[in-house]
Design brief:
This protein is mainly beta. The protein is built from 1 helix and 10 strands; from the N terminus they run βαβββββββββ. The strands form 3 sheets. Strands 1, 2, 3, 4, 7 and 8 form a 6-stranded antiparallel β-sheet that branches. Strands 5-10 form a two-stranded antiparallel sheet. Strands 6-9 form a two-stranded antiparallel ribbon.
Length: 134
């Protein structure tokens, strides 16, 4: 699931590193399943219905151990559970700082899209959420 940073997050990091206000990372971030991939300036279309909600993921070293080789990987399964209605074709995952609305932080396309029907579940396996800096 390699992807990119949002313009919002890039600006916060730039300010934090170079004389602007410090950026305090969120204690929890929220992962959204997307039917249209966002871009660094935002947009995209989030899945809805069928018992779907953004996945709250605690932003700590248990879930996100130290980076290695400019790569950060998730250390626990990210599990949205089972859906009570079809959600359509999921093409990307996006990370936000709020359970609804909020600021887009990062996003990435799935390695292959996934059609979610009634009764399907969705997980990102350990090391399936990859952040890479080049």
């Amino acid at each position: 699931m390699p992807g990119g940073k949002s313009n919002y997050l890039a600006d916060k990091i730039g300010d934090h590193m170079h004389g602007g206000p410090d950026y305090t990372r969120p204690a929890t971030t929220y992962f959204a399943m997307m039917t249209v991939t966002p871009t660094s300036s935002g947009g995209g279309t989030e899945a809805s219905g069928g018992g779907y909600a953004r996945l709250a993921y605690t932003n700590n070293s248990t879930n996100w151990p130290a980076s290695s080789g400019q790569t950060k990987l998730n250390a626990t399964v990210m599990d949205w559970g089972t859906f009570t209605a079809a959600l359509g074709t999921i093409v990307a995952i996006a990370e936000y700082d709020s359970s609804s609305g909020g600021n887009l932080l990062s996003f990435g396309p799935l390695s292959s899209s996934r059609v979610l029907a009634t009764g399907d579940s969705f997980q990102v396996p350990i090391s399936g959420g990859t952040y890479q800096e080049s």
